[in-house]
Structures are given as C-alpha cells and as structure tokens.
Amino acid sequence: MKHSRLTRAALAVCSLLLASGCTSLQTVSVTSIPSDRSKPLEVEETNTAFLGIHFDNDFVETIPEQLREQCPGGKVTGILTKYESTWYIIIQVRSVTATAYCVQGDAPARKIEVSSLVSQERAL
Amino acid sequence: MFPSTPRLAGSLRSLGLAGTWALALGCAHLHHYQVADIDGSQGTLEPFEVQVDETGFDLQEASEAAKLVSDSNQHKRLDEIQGFLALFQYGPTTGDPTFSDDWADGLTAQILARCPSGQVTGLVALRESADYPVVSGQVVTIRGYCVR
Questions:
Q1: Do B29 and A54 touch (CB under 8 A)?
Q2: Quick check: A22 and A84 in contact, CB under 8 A?
Q3: The dihedral of CA B41, B45, B47, B48: what is its sign?
Q4: Chain A residues with CB inside 8 Å of B30's CB?
Q5: Is B38 helix (H, G, I), strand (E, B) or coil?
Q6: Minimal CA–CA distance to B111: which of B146, B135, B139?
Q7: pLDDT above 80 (res B13)
Q8: Structure confidence by residue, pLDDT tens digits, A73-88
Q9: Contact at CB, B40 and A71, closer than 8 angstroms
C-alpha cells in the first residue's frame, strides 16, 4: 500500500516534469545571409501569461529598433527570426528571438570635381 | 428553495462556459512574426505602420452558443451542422475564417502611400488576432522604415 502510493507519487512528479517546459516553434523566417559575418547581433523579447491568456502582442514592438541600435549606420541582414511558445504547466511564455549580422553599408561615393579630371587629362 | 440537482448542474455549466468566455475576452494571439533586412546606411529612416483587419467567425463556438440557448431537441440538428462544417473547415490556418478572401490585398498600396519614394526597409510583418466569443478581429500589421 505504501509502496504503491510512493510509486504513484513518483509517476505524478515525473509526468509533471516531462510536461513542463514543452516548447513549440510557431514560425521561423530568415533573410539573405551576408558574406561578412564578423559582427553578429541578437535580440530576444519574451512575454509571460497565466493560462496562456495574453491581452496584447506589444512585446515584439521594440525588436527592430534594438537591432538598429546594435548596428548604427549599417545594414542589419541575415536575420533569423524565431517565434516560440513554451508551456510551464499553466504558464505560457512566448518568445521572439532575432539573430542577425551587422554589415557596414557601402561608403558614399567621393564627389569628384569635373575640372580636376580635365586638368589631370591634360597633364597626361 | 434550492434548485434541483440537474438544473443546478445545468446552471453551473452555463456559468462555467460564460466564465471561460469572460476570461478569454479580448485574448490576443500572435500567429506569425518576421523581420526583413534593415538598411540604415542609405539615409534617415522614418518609421511607419499600416494595418488591415477583418472580422473572423468561429463557427464551432457559434454552434456551442446556440446549444446553450436551445432545447435538447435542437442539439442533434446543431451537432449535424457542426459535423458538416468540420468537413471543409480543416487544415493549417491562422486565426478564424473570414467571409472575405482579399482583405489583406491592399497592404502594398498602403505601404507605398505612406512611403511615396518606394524606398522601404526593415519591414516587419505581424499576423495577429484578437479573440472574443464567436467573433474575432483578424489583423495583419506591417511596420517598416521609409528611407528619406
């Protein structure tokens, strides 16, 4: 009797542990990956709700701005965006993770005076 | 003085369903989220946002609601309707079905109206819904930056 009670309790605990932290991948997307991958970036935002009842999706609003802040004046590219949902018994955690690379944009073309081109040509 | 047991059970069931609906009132769902390349090297970036939405209908919830207010004789008819609807309402979807299939078609025109130069970057696409009992708001939001 005591042994079966212990076994049931152990099974219940194991079931709870197995059922906790169940993660599902909702969506994933990726943009074209640059050849220059020397500067990786990462941003993650999460949102937790009891029973998975969420009242808004505002937690994702700052992600693009956070990526831009990590790459001032450059191009954020090779963005892998993952939207996942994890259940911890009765608590749901939604998370969006964006990993990317910062590539410094092309340097603006120098402004060349036409007159200097003509004088160089004459010198030649 | 007190209601009989079957009536009490029925009342409690209705109350439980109503409570569940109240809890889920205005429940927000995020179905899809993606970010495109953000090019900050071509000029000043001015953020913009465009949104389209449509009313969705959960026909299963509607028939369950109809069962609450109908007598047991009509339950069999409602079950048949539910079964019939289930035959062609299957497959991967985001949100509830709508009665329009082109409600998101005007997004490109809206983006170009907000950014006449046509130089947009950092496009973020969100597919979300706000669920209420039976009806829901199906929403597509596009955020981005217009290069000035």
A1: yes
A2: no
A3: negative
A4: 26, 54, 57, 60, 83, 94
A5: strand
A6: B146
A7: no
A8: 999 999 999 999 999 8
A9: yes
